[in-house]
Every structure is written in C-alpha cells, then in structure tokens.
Amino acid sequence: MSIYLVKRLLHLIPTLIGVTLFAFLLVAAVPGDPAQIIAGESASEEEVQIIRDQLGIDKPLYQQYISYVTNIFKGDLGTSLRSSKPVLDEILLRFPTTLILTVMSLVVMIIVGLIAGIASATKPNSIRDNVSMMISLFGISMPVFWMGIMFILLFSYYLPWFPSGGSSEFKHFVLPSLVLGLSASGILARLTRSSILEIVNQDFVRTARAKGVKEKYVIYKHTLKNALIPIITIVGMEFGVLLGGAVITETVFSMNGIGRYVVESIQFRDFPAIQGSILFISTIFVLVILLVDLSYSIVDPRIRYEN
Questions:
Q1: Per-residue DSSP letters for 179-200?
Q2: Which helix (H) or strand (E) holds 4?
Q3: What sections of the protein cross the membrane (predicted)?
Q4: CA-CA distance, 264 to 290, in Å (whole number)?
Q5: Is 86 helix (H, G, I), strand (E, B) or coil?
Q6: Domains of the chain from N-terminus onward
Q7: How far is CA 88 from CA 40, 95, 181, 285, 307, in A?
Q8: Closest listed residue to residue 274, CA positions, set 6, 7, 82, 61
Q9: Is 1 exposed, middle or buried (0-12, 13-18, 19+ CB in 10 A)?
Q10: At what angle do helices 258-267 and 271-299 cross, to 10 degrees?
Q11: Please, which residues have CB within 8 angstroms of residue 149's CB and are 6 or more apart in sequence?
Q12: What is the 3-state secondary structure (H, E, C) of 18-39?
C-alpha cells in the first residue's frame, strides 16, 4: 500500500503541473495588456507599469511561469490587487465557510440520493420508482442559482424560517446546503438504483434469499455493500462539483466563502486572486480523488494494490 501511495502521489505531479499551467495561462491569454485592463483606461503609463511590475508580466512568458511555480512552492500565491493582502491568507480566511457548505451539501446528497436510489431499486418500474426518478431528474435539470432563488423566496420570504444570506451561524448554511445537496442527489440516486439492480440478480443475493434472510438485510448487507464502489466514486467526483457549485451558491446566499471571493475577484479583475483560488480548489479536488481511490480496498477487501 505504501509503495502504491507513493506511485499515486507521483502521478499527481503532472496533474498539478497542468493546473498551474492553466491558472498561469488564464492571465497570459487575456486579450490586450492585463495591466492596462486592471488599471483602467484613464490610468497613466507609470501606474500601468507599477501593475506590470507587480504581476511580473514584463518578462518573457517562460520566465513568468518559472517564477509563478517557484512562488507556489514557497507558499506564495501572489498578492491581491484589490486588498493588497496575500492571496493565500484571503483564501484560508474563507475556506472554512466553503468547506462547511460542501460537507453539509455532501451529507444531504448522500442521504437523499441513497434513500431515493434504494427505494427505486427495491420496487423497479413501480410508481415509487417512477416518482423517485422523476424527482431526481428534476434535481439534475434545475440550475443551482434558480433553486437558490426559489428556496430564498419560499423559506426566507413567505416562510421566514431561515435567513436568506450570511455565513456566521449554522442556520445560514441550511438553505444553501439543501440547494447544493438536492441538486447533486439526483445523479447519486440514479447511480445507486442502477448499481443495486445490477447486483440484486447475482447468485449470492439469490442464495441469501433462498436461506430466508430478511429482505432488508439482503438489500443493506449484501446488495448495497457490493454496490458501493461506483457510489463512492461518484461521491468523490461530486465533492469537486459541489466545490464548483459553491461559486454560484455562495454568491446567491451572500456567503463569505471562496466561491464568492472568486466572483468578486473576476468583477474587480483581480487576476492573482483568481489564479490562487483555481489552484487551491483544484489541489483539494485532486487530493480527494486520491483518498477515494485508496478507500476502495477498505470497502471491498477483494481489491488489492500491487507494489
């Protein structure tokens, strides 16, 4: 396992290099002079040159990239042009909000998705199955920002149960986590249904039923346990989707997280903040996928990692 882990960590290096290259080219690919765009049309040449020096864009492109990667290894993601503070400090200040929102949304997704998927799989082609799949399709199809606005209108305006914005208390996370979790639960529900239906007709399940094992034990102990690999995979993938969805959700609900920080940085053309946020979120997502990969052997002992 230890050798396999080292190999997987080495395999992450090209991925992270690609992420740094994408974040770097984000500024390099901006049409025109980024310094002039940031400074504005009325800025003097001296002011534009100061911004060029701050961004380091007056050097050749390869030197800019080497300098950018070198600073990353030093823990320096640059300085925000808007606040004049280190980008990493700004991100770490907002990361707990985004992490709490993502984890709560993931919990909602798992609970709703598994219940809907199991309910559909145990009674295939029934009314319960059709209703569950229709609801899951609705969750997949509806834009997150639209669901957020509808939830605010219903549960904050007509039924003033929860606040419509903020991130200082637990109650501020209820509506946004429901919006994100419910929108993602549809995919999990459909995958759970298909995975269970694939397992439920195998020999060991029929044997368990022939021995008189109660149906709930057949489903939860035998069938669901063997269907967990694709479910765990989609949960790990959805973690990254939820991090990305937080960009919209945090803006709709006025939460002080990384997502809203990215939107504000785009509005103010704060390129170092955009670069740093993309790199930070992408790195977390890559590490989560690694943990998901390593968890397979825990869920299914038949899986062994060769050295």
A1: HHHHHHHHHHHHHHHHHHHHHT
A2: helix 2-28
A3: 12-30, 99-121, 133-158, 170-189, 227-248, 278-299
A4: 31
A5: strand
A6: 96-270 (1.10.3720.10)
A7: 26, 10, 28, 17, 36
A8: 82
A9: exposed
A10: 150
A11: 252
A12: HHHHHHHHHHHCCCCCHHHHHH
* pTM for the full predicted model: 0.79
Residues in contact with 219: Cβ distance below 8 Å, sequence separation at least 6, in sequence order: 118, 121, 122, 196, 200
62-77 burial string, b = 16+ CB within 10 Å, else e? eebbeebeeebeeeeb
Among all chains, which residue has been given the structure tokens 């700004």?
90
Task: Encode pLDDT of 38-76 as tens digits.
Answer: 666 677 777 777 777 776 777 777 787 888 888 888 888
What are the tens digits of pLDDT across the range 193-252? 888 777 777 777 777 777 777 777 777 676 777 777 777 888 888 887 787 777 788 888
* Residue owning tokens 């834009």: 143
Which DSSP string corresponds to 98-146? HHHHHHHHHHHHHHHHHHHHHHHHHSTTSHHHHHHHHHHHHHHHS-HHH
Q: Which residues of 143-180 are buried (b: 16+ CB within 10 A; e: fewer)?
A: ebeebbeebbeebbeeeeebbbeebeeeebbbbbbbbb
Other beta carbons within 10 Å of 296 = 16
For residues 307 and 304, what is the distance between their CA atoms, to the nearest angstrom? 10
> Whole-angstrom Cα distance, residue 87 to residue 91?
6
Q: Which of 97, 254, 257 is nearest to 166 (CA)?
A: 254
Structure tokens at 215: 């149906």
